[in-house]
Protein backbone atom coordinates (compact mmCIF):
# COMPACT_ATOMS: atom_id res chain seq x y z
CA UNK A 1 0.00 0.00 0.00
CA UNK A 2 1.11 3.55 -0.72
CA UNK A 3 1.77 5.56 2.42
CA UNK A 4 -1.02 8.13 2.84
CA UNK A 5 -0.65 11.83 2.36
CA UNK A 6 -1.04 13.48 5.77
CA UNK A 7 -2.34 16.98 5.05
CA UNK A 8 -2.83 19.56 7.80
CA UNK A 9 -5.20 22.50 7.49
CA UNK A 10 -3.26 25.72 8.00
CA UNK A 11 -4.68 29.03 9.24
CA UNK A 12 -2.88 32.15 7.91
CA UNK A 13 -4.56 34.51 10.39
CA UNK A 14 -1.59 35.23 12.66
CA UNK A 15 -0.68 38.66 11.35
CA UNK A 16 -2.45 42.02 11.47
CA UNK A 17 -4.35 43.33 8.45
CA UNK A 18 -6.56 46.41 7.94
CA UNK A 19 -9.96 44.71 8.08
CA UNK A 20 -9.25 43.11 11.46
CA UNK A 21 -7.90 46.43 12.71
CA UNK A 22 -11.18 48.03 11.68
CA UNK A 23 -13.45 45.33 13.13
CA UNK A 24 -11.65 44.49 16.36
CA UNK A 25 -9.03 47.14 17.05
CA UNK A 26 -5.47 47.91 16.01
CA UNK A 27 -3.17 44.88 15.94
CA UNK A 28 -5.86 42.22 16.40
CA UNK A 29 -4.85 38.68 15.43
CA UNK A 30 -5.98 35.23 16.52
CA UNK A 31 -3.54 35.56 19.43
CA UNK A 32 -5.77 38.27 20.89
CA UNK A 33 -8.51 35.71 21.54
CA UNK A 34 -6.03 33.06 22.65
CA UNK A 35 -4.52 35.41 25.21
CA UNK A 36 -7.93 36.31 26.67
CA UNK A 37 -9.04 32.70 27.19
CA UNK A 38 -9.88 31.63 30.75
CA UNK A 39 -10.87 28.45 32.56
CA UNK A 40 -14.63 27.96 32.40
CA UNK A 41 -14.86 25.01 34.80
CA UNK A 42 -12.51 23.04 37.09
CA UNK A 43 -9.89 21.16 35.07
CA UNK A 44 -10.55 23.14 31.88
CA UNK A 45 -7.27 23.52 29.98
CA UNK A 46 -7.12 27.25 29.34
CA UNK A 47 -5.29 29.43 28.63
CA UNK A 48 -3.19 27.51 26.10
CA UNK A 49 0.24 29.02 25.67
CA UNK A 50 2.43 28.29 22.63
CA UNK A 51 5.89 26.93 23.40
CA UNK A 52 8.60 26.57 20.73
CA UNK A 53 7.19 29.13 18.28
CA UNK A 54 5.72 31.56 20.80
CA UNK A 55 3.06 34.09 19.83
CA UNK A 56 4.38 34.25 16.30
CA UNK A 57 3.78 36.71 13.47
CA UNK A 58 3.48 35.09 10.04
CA UNK A 59 4.99 38.16 8.39
CA UNK A 60 8.32 36.70 9.57
CA UNK A 61 9.55 34.11 7.06
CA UNK A 62 11.50 32.21 9.71
CA UNK A 63 8.24 31.17 11.40
CA UNK A 64 6.97 29.27 8.38
CA UNK A 65 10.33 27.53 8.02
CA UNK A 66 10.10 26.40 11.64
CA UNK A 67 6.51 25.25 11.15
CA UNK A 68 7.59 23.16 8.17
CA UNK A 69 10.37 21.57 10.20
CA UNK A 70 7.87 20.59 12.91
CA UNK A 71 5.45 19.28 10.28
CA UNK A 72 8.16 17.07 8.79
CA UNK A 73 8.98 15.75 12.25
CA UNK A 74 5.29 14.88 12.70
CA UNK A 75 5.03 13.02 9.39
CA UNK A 76 2.79 15.70 7.87
CA UNK A 77 3.37 15.74 4.12
CA UNK A 78 1.60 18.98 3.13
CA UNK A 79 -0.18 22.06 4.44
CA UNK A 80 -3.61 23.04 3.16
CA UNK A 81 -3.84 26.82 3.41
CA UNK A 82 -7.24 28.33 4.13
CA UNK A 83 -7.86 30.96 1.44
CA UNK A 84 -10.38 33.79 1.67
CA UNK A 85 -11.88 35.22 -1.52
CA UNK A 86 -15.05 37.30 -1.28
CA UNK A 87 -16.21 38.23 -4.77
CA UNK A 88 -12.91 39.88 -5.68
CA UNK A 89 -11.80 40.79 -2.16
CA UNK A 90 -8.93 38.76 -0.65
CA UNK A 91 -8.20 38.58 3.06
CA UNK A 92 -5.28 37.04 4.98
CA UNK A 93 -3.40 36.26 1.77
CA UNK A 94 -0.01 37.62 2.83
CA UNK A 95 1.51 34.44 4.36
CA UNK A 96 0.65 32.40 1.26
CA UNK A 97 1.78 35.11 -1.17
CA UNK A 98 5.04 35.65 0.71
CA UNK A 99 5.80 31.92 0.82
CA UNK A 100 5.25 31.59 -2.93
CA UNK A 101 7.41 34.62 -3.71
CA UNK A 102 10.26 33.30 -1.54
CA UNK A 103 10.19 29.88 -3.18
CA UNK A 104 11.24 28.19 0.07
CA UNK A 105 10.98 26.01 2.03
CA UNK A 106 10.53 23.04 -0.29
CA UNK A 107 7.36 21.68 1.29
CA UNK A 108 4.14 20.73 -0.51
CA UNK A 109 1.00 22.82 -0.05
CA UNK A 110 -2.49 23.14 -1.45
CA UNK A 111 -5.41 25.50 -0.92
CA UNK A 112 -8.85 25.30 0.67
CA UNK A 113 -11.25 28.07 -0.32
CA UNK A 114 -12.99 28.93 2.96
CA UNK A 115 -16.05 30.33 1.24
CA UNK A 116 -18.20 31.30 4.20
CA UNK A 117 -19.58 34.68 5.21
CA UNK A 118 -17.86 36.26 8.21
CA UNK A 119 -19.99 37.59 11.05
CA UNK A 120 -18.99 39.33 14.26
CA UNK A 121 -19.72 36.22 16.33
CA UNK A 122 -17.37 34.00 14.29
CA UNK A 123 -14.28 35.44 15.93
CA UNK A 124 -15.03 37.10 19.23
CA UNK A 125 -16.67 35.94 22.46
CA UNK A 126 -17.94 39.43 23.33
CA UNK A 127 -19.87 39.53 20.06
CA UNK A 128 -21.98 36.58 21.25
CA UNK A 129 -23.85 39.03 23.46
CA UNK A 130 -24.75 41.53 20.74
CA UNK A 131 -26.81 41.43 17.57
CA UNK A 132 -25.31 39.33 14.79
CA UNK A 133 -23.61 41.50 12.19
CA UNK A 134 -22.13 40.55 8.82
CA UNK A 135 -18.51 41.68 8.53
CA UNK A 136 -17.94 40.51 4.96
CA UNK A 137 -20.39 38.52 2.89
CA UNK A 138 -19.50 35.69 0.57
CA UNK A 139 -20.88 36.27 -2.93
CA UNK A 140 -20.78 34.42 -6.24
CA UNK A 141 -20.90 37.16 -8.92
CA UNK A 142 -20.34 34.98 -11.98
CA UNK A 143 -17.84 34.09 -14.66
CA UNK A 144 -15.62 37.19 -14.39
CA UNK A 145 -15.18 36.60 -10.66
CA UNK A 146 -14.45 32.91 -11.27
CA UNK A 147 -11.70 33.91 -13.72
CA UNK A 148 -10.29 36.57 -11.41
CA UNK A 149 -10.17 34.10 -8.54
CA UNK A 150 -8.24 31.61 -10.67
CA UNK A 151 -5.70 34.17 -11.83
CA UNK A 152 -5.20 35.48 -8.30
CA UNK A 153 -4.09 31.95 -7.38
CA UNK A 154 -2.22 31.17 -10.58
CA UNK A 155 1.20 31.78 -8.96
CA UNK A 156 0.30 29.11 -6.40
CA UNK A 157 -0.95 26.62 -8.99
CA UNK A 158 2.22 27.17 -11.04
CA UNK A 159 4.50 26.59 -8.05
CA UNK A 160 6.47 23.31 -8.22
CA UNK A 161 5.58 22.68 -4.57
CA UNK A 162 1.83 22.73 -5.19
CA UNK A 163 0.35 19.37 -4.17
CA UNK A 164 -0.84 17.04 -6.93
CA UNK A 165 -2.85 13.86 -6.66
CA UNK A 166 -3.13 11.68 -9.75
CA UNK A 167 -1.03 14.41 -11.43
CA UNK A 168 -3.78 17.00 -10.84
CA UNK A 169 -3.85 20.14 -8.71
CA UNK A 170 -5.52 19.61 -5.32
CA UNK A 171 -8.10 22.26 -4.49
CA UNK A 172 -10.59 22.06 -1.61
CA UNK A 173 -13.90 23.92 -1.33
CA UNK A 174 -15.01 24.32 2.25
CA UNK A 175 -18.75 24.92 1.82
CA UNK A 176 -19.83 23.76 -1.60
CA UNK A 177 -23.50 23.48 -0.69
CA UNK A 178 -23.64 27.27 -0.27
CA UNK A 179 -22.55 27.82 -3.88
CA UNK A 180 -25.51 28.36 -6.24
CA UNK A 181 -26.46 25.37 -8.33
CA UNK A 182 -24.84 25.08 -11.76
CA UNK A 183 -22.21 27.68 -10.80
CA UNK A 184 -19.55 26.91 -13.44
CA UNK A 185 -16.44 27.28 -11.28
CA UNK A 186 -15.13 23.71 -11.56
CA UNK A 187 -15.45 23.35 -15.32
CA UNK A 188 -14.19 26.88 -15.92
CA UNK A 189 -11.11 26.38 -13.74
CA UNK A 190 -10.20 23.22 -15.63
CA UNK A 191 -10.48 25.19 -18.88
CA UNK A 192 -8.25 27.93 -17.48
CA UNK A 193 -5.73 25.39 -16.19
CA UNK A 194 -5.37 23.86 -19.66
CA UNK A 195 -5.13 27.33 -21.19
CA UNK A 196 -2.21 28.09 -18.85
CA UNK A 197 -0.41 24.80 -19.54
CA UNK A 198 -1.32 23.32 -16.17
CA UNK A 199 -2.94 20.00 -15.34
CA UNK A 200 -6.61 19.93 -14.43
CA UNK A 201 -7.79 20.03 -10.82
CA UNK A 202 -8.30 17.32 -8.26
CA UNK A 203 -11.34 18.90 -6.62
CA UNK A 204 -12.28 18.01 -3.07
CA UNK A 205 -15.28 19.15 -1.04
CA UNK A 206 -15.36 19.52 2.72
CA UNK A 207 -18.30 18.60 4.95
CA UNK A 208 -18.91 18.21 8.67
CA UNK A 209 -21.96 15.98 8.21
CA UNK A 210 -21.60 12.23 7.48
CA UNK A 211 -25.11 12.25 6.02
CA UNK A 212 -23.93 14.60 3.29
CA UNK A 213 -21.21 12.48 1.70
CA UNK A 214 -23.55 10.60 -0.66
CA UNK A 215 -25.48 13.65 -1.78
CA UNK A 216 -25.52 14.04 -5.59
CA UNK A 217 -24.04 17.54 -5.31
CA UNK A 218 -20.69 15.94 -4.51
CA UNK A 219 -20.61 13.73 -7.60
CA UNK A 220 -18.52 16.35 -9.40
CA UNK A 221 -15.73 16.01 -6.82
CA UNK A 222 -12.92 13.51 -6.69
CA UNK A 223 -13.21 13.19 -2.91
CA UNK A 224 -15.24 14.44 0.02
CA UNK A 225 -13.28 15.40 3.14
CA UNK A 226 -15.30 14.50 6.23
CA UNK A 227 -14.79 16.00 9.67
CA UNK A 228 -17.17 14.56 12.25
CA UNK A 229 -16.57 16.92 15.16
CA UNK A 230 -20.30 17.61 15.31
CA UNK A 231 -20.93 13.89 15.72
CA UNK A 232 -19.01 13.95 18.98
CA UNK A 233 -21.55 16.39 20.41
CA UNK A 234 -24.61 14.71 18.89
CA UNK A 235 -26.41 15.60 15.66
CA UNK A 236 -29.65 17.53 15.56
CA UNK A 237 -31.44 19.96 17.85
CA UNK A 238 -33.83 17.93 20.02
CA UNK A 239 -36.07 19.69 22.56
CA UNK A 240 -34.15 17.97 25.37
CA UNK A 241 -30.83 19.21 24.06
CA UNK A 242 -32.09 22.76 23.53
CA UNK A 243 -33.47 22.89 27.08
CA UNK A 244 -30.15 21.63 28.41
CA UNK A 245 -28.31 24.28 26.43
CA UNK A 246 -30.49 27.05 27.81
CA UNK A 247 -30.18 25.83 31.39
CA UNK A 248 -26.42 25.32 31.38
CA UNK A 249 -25.30 28.11 29.10
CA UNK A 250 -27.68 30.98 29.73
CA UNK A 251 -28.48 30.51 33.41
CA UNK A 252 -25.41 28.81 34.85
CA UNK A 253 -23.03 30.63 32.45
CA UNK A 254 -21.14 27.42 31.70
CA UNK A 255 -20.32 25.88 28.30
CA UNK A 256 -23.18 23.59 27.28
CA UNK A 257 -21.15 21.49 24.85
CA UNK A 258 -18.39 19.65 26.69
CA UNK A 259 -17.45 16.05 25.95
CA UNK A 260 -14.42 14.09 27.04
CA UNK A 261 -11.91 13.55 24.25
CA UNK A 262 -11.88 9.84 25.12
CA UNK A 263 -15.59 9.67 24.24
CA UNK A 264 -15.28 12.10 21.34
CA UNK A 265 -12.81 9.98 19.38
CA UNK A 266 -15.24 7.06 19.60
CA UNK A 267 -18.24 9.14 18.58
CA UNK A 268 -16.41 10.70 15.64
CA UNK A 269 -15.86 7.26 14.07
CA UNK A 270 -18.65 6.62 11.61
CA UNK A 271 -19.43 4.23 8.71
CA UNK A 272 -19.05 7.09 6.23
CA UNK A 273 -15.29 7.03 6.79
CA UNK A 274 -15.20 3.64 5.07
CA UNK A 275 -16.58 5.08 1.83
CA UNK A 276 -13.70 5.05 -0.65
CA UNK A 277 -14.58 8.54 -1.87
CA UNK A 278 -14.37 9.93 1.67
CA UNK A 279 -11.14 11.33 3.10
CA UNK A 280 -11.33 11.28 6.92
CA UNK A 281 -10.24 14.10 9.21
CA UNK A 282 -8.42 13.51 12.50
CA UNK A 283 -8.81 16.02 15.31
CA UNK A 284 -6.05 16.24 17.94
CA UNK A 285 -8.00 18.58 20.22
CA UNK A 286 -10.89 21.04 20.14
CA UNK A 287 -11.90 24.00 22.30
CA UNK A 288 -13.18 27.15 20.66
CA UNK A 289 -14.05 28.90 23.91
CA UNK A 290 -11.27 31.46 23.17
CA UNK A 291 -13.48 32.69 20.32
CA UNK A 292 -16.95 31.97 21.70
CA UNK A 293 -16.63 31.90 25.49
CA UNK A 294 -19.34 29.77 27.12
CA UNK A 295 -20.90 29.40 23.66
CA UNK A 296 -17.96 27.28 22.57
CA UNK A 297 -17.79 23.50 22.31
CA UNK A 298 -14.97 21.62 24.03
CA UNK A 299 -13.20 18.28 23.91
CA UNK A 300 -12.13 17.93 27.53
CA UNK A 301 -8.91 16.16 28.57
CA UNK A 302 -7.44 15.61 25.12
CA UNK A 303 -3.93 14.14 25.28
CA UNK A 304 -1.26 13.00 22.81
CA UNK A 305 -1.77 9.38 23.88
CA UNK A 306 -5.48 9.51 23.08
CA UNK A 307 -4.68 11.25 19.80
CA UNK A 308 -2.48 8.26 18.90
CA UNK A 309 -5.50 6.01 19.43
CA UNK A 310 -7.68 8.28 17.29
CA UNK A 311 -5.11 8.45 14.49
CA UNK A 312 -4.60 4.68 14.63
CA UNK A 313 -8.34 4.09 14.14
CA UNK A 314 -8.39 6.33 11.07
CA UNK A 315 -5.20 4.82 9.63
CA UNK A 316 -6.68 1.33 9.97
CA UNK A 317 -9.73 2.44 7.97
CA UNK A 318 -7.59 4.21 5.39
CA UNK A 319 -5.29 1.23 4.89
CA UNK A 320 -8.23 -0.89 3.69
CA UNK A 321 -9.22 1.43 0.88
CA UNK A 322 -8.42 0.68 -2.75
CA UNK A 323 -7.68 4.17 -3.98
CA UNK A 324 -5.07 5.83 -6.17
CA UNK A 325 -3.65 7.84 -3.26
CA UNK A 326 -4.83 7.41 0.34
CA UNK A 327 -5.14 10.63 2.31
CA UNK A 328 -5.89 11.87 5.82
CA UNK A 329 -6.45 15.49 6.82
CA UNK A 330 -5.54 16.88 10.21
CA UNK A 331 -7.79 19.59 11.56
CA UNK A 332 -5.73 21.58 12.26
CA UNK A 333 -2.08 22.57 12.34
CA UNK A 334 -2.53 25.94 14.06
CA UNK A 335 -6.14 26.86 14.87
CA UNK A 336 -5.18 28.14 18.31
CA UNK A 337 -8.42 30.12 18.70
CA UNK A 338 -10.32 26.83 18.43
CA UNK A 339 -7.94 24.95 20.74
CA UNK A 340 -7.23 22.85 17.67
CA UNK A 341 -3.54 22.54 16.84
CA UNK A 342 -0.50 20.30 16.53
CA UNK A 343 2.11 22.93 17.37
CA UNK A 344 3.92 22.71 20.73
CA UNK A 345 2.37 24.27 23.81
CA UNK A 346 3.63 24.63 27.37
CA UNK A 347 1.69 21.64 28.73
CA UNK A 348 2.58 18.98 26.16
CA UNK A 349 5.60 20.41 24.34
CA UNK A 350 6.13 18.45 21.12
CA UNK A 351 4.22 15.36 22.26
CA UNK A 352 1.51 15.72 19.59
CA UNK A 353 4.24 15.97 16.95
CA UNK A 354 5.88 12.84 18.32
CA UNK A 355 2.59 10.98 18.69
CA UNK A 356 1.73 11.62 15.05
CA UNK A 357 5.13 10.45 13.78
CA UNK A 358 5.21 7.36 15.97
CA UNK A 359 1.70 6.29 14.97
CA UNK A 360 2.35 6.66 11.24
CA UNK A 361 5.71 4.89 11.44
CA UNK A 362 4.23 2.00 13.41
CA UNK A 363 2.07 0.94 10.46
CA UNK A 364 3.05 -1.68 7.91
CA UNK A 365 2.51 0.13 4.61
CA UNK A 366 3.54 -2.88 2.52
CA UNK A 367 0.05 -4.40 2.85
CA UNK A 368 -1.96 -4.49 -0.35
CA UNK A 369 -4.75 -1.96 -0.42
CA UNK A 370 -4.32 0.57 -3.16
CA UNK A 371 -5.02 0.31 -6.86
From TrEMBL:
Q: Which InterPro entries match?
A: WbsX
Q: Which domain of life is it from?
A: Bacteria
Parts of the chain that traverse the membrane: none
Which PANTHER family does UniProt cross-reference here? GLYCOSYLTRANSFERASE, RHAMNAN SYNTHESIS F
The protein in question is named Lipopolysaccharide biosynthesis protein
Amino acid sequence: MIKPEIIAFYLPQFHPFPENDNWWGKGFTEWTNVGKARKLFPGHYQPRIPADLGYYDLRLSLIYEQQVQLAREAGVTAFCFYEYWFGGKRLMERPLVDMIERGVPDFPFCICWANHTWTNNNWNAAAQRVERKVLIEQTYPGIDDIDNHFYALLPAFSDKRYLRIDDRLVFVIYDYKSIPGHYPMLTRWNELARKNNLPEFYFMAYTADPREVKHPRYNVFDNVILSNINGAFGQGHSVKRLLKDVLINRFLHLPAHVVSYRKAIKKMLCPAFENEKVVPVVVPNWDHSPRLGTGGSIFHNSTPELFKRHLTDILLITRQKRVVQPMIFIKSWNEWGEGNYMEPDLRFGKQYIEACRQTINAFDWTMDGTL
